[in-house]
Specification:
33% helix, globular, 7 strands, three-stranded antiparallel sheet
C-alpha cells in the first residue's frame, strides 16, 4: 500500500470520509440513552449506503456495555455515553471518523480536556516519521500528558493503551507494554486510549 496517493485516490478517500461524517451527523441527532449499539450502527449504515457507500463498518463501545474497547455493536443500550468508529468505503477507498456521544451535556471540564487532547494529538501526528517505534510515540504522548494544565486535570489521568491498525492486522499495547521497539507499519491508524478526568470519561484519539 503506497503512503503517497495520487489525485483520484485522494478524491475517493475524501468522499468516503464525507459520507461517514454526514451519516454520523444525521444519525447522532436522534440517539438517546435508550438507543442500542445495534440500532445506532444500523442507522449509520443505512444512511451511508443511501449516500452511495460500498461498504460500512461500525465499531463502538458504550456505557451500557461496560467496555472500553471498540468492538462490533451489541444489543446493549448506550447509556450515558457511546464511543464510535465508522469506516466507509467509496470507489474502493476508505474514510473513517470516530467520536464520542454523551446522552447528557458533557461538563465544561470534559470539553476542555477534549480540546486540549485534540491539540496534543495534532502536534504528535505532524511529527511522526515512517519508522517511528511504539515507545517513541508513547514517550511523546506521556510528555504531553504530564504537561496537561492543572485546571483541567483535577482528577488526574490514566493512559490505558495504544491500538494500531494496519491494512492486514491490528495490535494492542497496554500501558505496561509500550516500551517495545515495535515499528509502526506505514499507513497505520493509531488510536490512543485513556481516561480523564474521571474513570467514566473514556476518550480516544486517532491519527
Amino acid at each position: 500500500v503506497r503512503s503517497q496517493k495520487i489525485g483520484p485516490e485522494l478524491t475517493a478517500i475524501r468522499h468516503a470520509l464525507s459520507i461517514a461524517e454526514a451519516s454520523v451527523e444525521k444519525v447522532i441527532k436522534n440517539v438517546s440513552s435508550a438507543t442500542t449499539e445495534l440500532e445506532f450502527a444500523a442507522d449509520v449504515e443505512r444512511e451511508a449506503r443511501r449516500l452511495r457507500a460500498e461498504s460500512v463498518i461500525v465499531r463502538c463501545s458504550s456505557d451500557g456495555k461496560g467496555s472500553i474497547w471498540l468492538s462490533p455493536p451489541s444489543a446493549a443500550t448506550i447509556g450515558s455515553n457511546l464511543i464510535f468508529e465508522v469506516s466507509v468505503q467509496y470507489s474502493g477507498y476508505w474514510g473513517q471518523v470516530a467520536g464520542t456521544y454523551f446522552s447528557d451535556e458533557p461538563t465544561d471540564i470534559v470539553l476542555r480536556w477534549t480540546d486540549w487532547l485534540k491539540q496534543q494529538i495534532s502536534v504528535l501526528a505532524h511529527n511522526l516519521n515512517a519508522d517511528v517505534k511504539v515507545h517513541q510515540l508513547w514517550e511523546s504522548f506521556k510528555r504531553a500528558e504530564d504537561a496537561v494544565p492543572t485546571e483541567i486535570n483535577l482528577y488526574g489521568s490514566l493512559s490505558t493503551g495504544l491500538w494500531i491498525e494496519s491494512m492486514k492486522r491490528s495490535w494492542f499495547f497496554n500501558f505496561a507494554e509500550c516500551e517495545t521497539d515495535f515499528a509502526i507499519p506505514e499507513g497505520s491508524v493509531i488510536c490512543l486510549l485513556y481516561t480523564s478526568p474521571s474513570p467514566r470519561d473514556l476518550s480516544t484519539s486517532r491519527m
